[in-house]
Specification:
Beta-galactosidase, Chain A, domain 5; alpha+beta; 3 domains; globular; TIM Barrel; 657 residues
């Protein structure tokens, strides 16, 4: 009897939870998207002026509530629009309700007002308005800042990622949107400040309520209302809008061989996944990671047994082993590292590198906050070299780039610097997750300003949260939905995960990063299905289901080790991403649709007979049950060199040149 096929939603994003684009509203030259009560993509004649305005409620661990909306009323008029609703947030006996009124006017100006009233004492890390400026057309550009004391200052949106808040005590921000047209966003009801959201890979600058210098979490007293407002206004002569022509296919152009090598591709290896990975060793061998980042934390009871497991997996895959070491001791760190070095020798694990991080640096430190107790890094690094002679030494942060940027290590003492990323820290919808790819080059460019000649290695990273440096633990996700700071994200096992993985590597491959590692072989962050520790309903019901779509992408990318990149460009990297390299006997070109819509792609620069294989909705079941992969089912590329890629589809093109 044939098993029922998964739904399109499960194939595409791994969950039945809807994530549909919101309703487009118009007010003169302004268009906005109303999405779940927030306004997104505020555009003036089609040019994005603000990424979002939202009234957000954060829990004590900085997780974001998804409010229940009531009495939503939307009135789109000829001369503008009105929106009103009530939002409710409830958890652990705490209650907060907020009432919102939005008015869009014929001149393109907009008012967004909110009144929040706690039904009980309400514990929060932040509750209030957040305003996002986009990166395109903003990074490096000038702006005017009006402060709460009335003082006006000229400044610029920073080019490099600012580790602290670039703008403090903010009342209003003004920047140029179009020639001769300025946009001002004015916030009333509290004091705002701006942080560089690129620290967390968000593609925006965020202006938020309540300065970080104040204590958090804090408690909103029951029954005491919180009133805030945001006004968006335009200044200058707004030109007539031009009509857009019919959308042309997105062009992907293959160019010449470059000097840049492909980064080494690897996977993380948490100690808890050793047994499951050994049970699926044949699949891990097929994936072929070039690097295994083995995590060792004495606080978790990691021991000689785990080192033996790391050895088995490194030897059986042929991957270079990096031991990622959490240093628990503050005063006895040299002896701790020496004991670990002896255990590594006893286990027979051959290390290519180690990366050390004191336990105090695993948690976030706010700007101007006191750094937790930790050994001086110069002597810690010296002790690590003494305990592991002849092995490459890495340092930095096992958490987000934010912490690397705020707690910059003495990189001149290191061979390489590490950090990870997570795209669901502040927002978990599909578009926001894909948009985080745009922030990666800025992180690498910024890191290069303070790590000097040290190598830069990123990962293990995943869509799901590997660790939560901002709170006690991950956000629970029992309903298999899109949840900020959750470890188990449903998109990891869907086409979305494959497209995001390719986009992640393609973006970083154009930077100076020399190695990129991902999640884990198995488990919530993995690419190989394992019911024992990460059950997934559809995979449980499907005989032979073994791997997630991203497995095939990583398998193909891992094979690029030692190859030179080829120049490959997309006419719109926000929709279609691409990556190519020169392989034996030809060229390999990968293409990913980063959107939920079909995309027409026109290829150029192919110099020879070309074959294509596509991982999409039609091939999903076969790809999940056949680890040999979609790459072995080639079809001759049409002479027109045009492709149509479905939602989050990934294509690989092999050119015999």
């Amino acid at each position: 009897m044939n098993q029922p096929l998964p739904s399109s939603a499960v194939i595409r994003v791994g969950t039945e939870q809807p994530d549909n684009p919101g309703r487009i509203l118009h007010a003169g030259p302004l268009s906005v998207e109303l999405d779940g009560g927030q306004l997104r993509y505020l555009r003036v004649n089609g040019v994005e002026a603000l990424r979002a305005i939202a009234f957000l409620v954060r829990d004590e661990n900085w997780g974001t509530y998804v409010p229940a909306l009531e009495n939503l009323k939307v009135d789109q008029r000829r001369d503008g629009f009105s929106v009103s609703y009530r939002g409710r947030c409830e958890r652990d006996g705490m209650k907060l309700a907020f009432d919102i009124v939005i008015e869009g006017h014929a001149d393109g100006n907009l008012d967004f007002e909110g009144v929040a009233t706690p039904g009980t004492d309400f514990r929060t890390a932040r509750s209030g308005f957040v305003i996002l400026h986009p990166l395109a057309g903003v990074v490096g550009r000038s702006l005017r800042i009006e402060h709460v004391d009335g003082r006006v200052e000229k400044s610029v949106f920073p080019q490099h990622v600012n580790p602290v808040q670039p703008f403090l005590h903010v009342r209003a921000l003004t920047h140029s949107v179009l020639p001769g047209v300025e946009a001002t966003v004015r916030m009333e009801g509290d004091t705002w400040e701006t942080e560089d959201h690129r620290n967390w890979t968000d593609a925006s600058f965020k202006t938020y309520v309540r300065p970080l210098a104040l204590p958090w979490p804090y408690t909103l007293p029951a029954g005491v209302p919180v009133r805030q407002s945001v006004r968006f206004s335009l200044g200058g002569k707004i030109p007539e809008a031009t009509r857009s022509s019919t959308a042309a296919p997105i062009g992907v152009k293959l160019g010449a061989v470059s000097r840049r090598p492909m980064p080494a591709i690897g996977v993380g290896l948490p100690a808890g996944e050793i047994e499951h990975s050994i049970q699926r060793l044949s699949l891990l061998r097929r994936l072929g990671p070039r690097v295994l980042v083995c995590h060792f934390d004495p606080r978790a009871g990691h021991s000689l047994k785990d080192l033996y497991g790391f050895r088995v997996l490194a030897e059986q895959t042929g991957a270079r082993a990096t031991l990622e070491i959490v240093v628990a001791s503050i005063g006895d760190y040299a002896a701790e590292l020496k004991r670990l070095g002896a255990l590594v020798t006893e286990s027979g694990l051959k290390l290519s590198a180690i990366a050390v991080c004191p336990v105090g640096d695993l948690k976030s430190v706010l700007p101007a906050g006191e750094r937790p107790p930790a050994p001086p890094l110069d002597v810690l690094y010296a002790a690590a070299r003494a305990a592991f002679p002849g092995v490459e030494l890495g340092g930095g942060m096992l958490s987000f780039f934010t912490e690397l940027n705020r707690k910059r290590p003495p990189a001149e003492l290191l061979d390489f610097v590490v950090n990870t990323t997570c795209p669901i820290v502040h927002a978990a919808d599909d578009r926001a997750v894909m948009e985080t790819l745009a922030a990666l080059p800025y992180q690498v460019e910024t890191a290069r300003t303070f790590i000097g000649h040290a190598l830069h290695r990123v990962g293990p990273s995943a869509i799901g949260c590997r660790d939560n440096p901002h709170g006690a633990t991950f956000t629970p996700n029992p309903a298999n939905e899109r949840v900020c700071l959750a470890q188990a994200d449903p998109r990891t096992r869907a086409l979305f995960g494959a497209a995001w993985t390719l986009g992640y590597v393609a973006t970083l491959a154009r930077t100076t990063v020399d190695a990129v590692t991902f999640g884990a072989p198995t488990g919530p962050l993995g690419f190989i299905h394992c019911a024992a520790n990460a059950p997934q309903p559809w995979f449980e019901k499907t005989p032979g289901a073994q791997v997630y779509p991203a497995f095939h992408v990583l398998t193909g990318l891992a094979r690029s080790a030692g190859c030179r990149q080829m120049t490959a460009t997309s006419s719109d990297h926000t929709k279609v991403e691409t990556l190519a390299w020169k392989a034996k006997g030809g060229t390999v070109l990968w293409i990913a649709n980063l959107t939920a819509n079909d995309q027409a792609v026109a290829l150029s620069g192919l110099r020879g007979e070309a074959f294509v294989s596509i991982l999409d909705e039609a091939s999903f079941v076969e790809a999940a049950t056949d680890p040999a992969g979609f790459q072995e089912r080639w079809k001759l590329l049409p002479a027109t060199a045009k492709l149509r890629l479905g939602a989050y589809a990934v294509a690989v093109v092999s050119v015999n040149d």
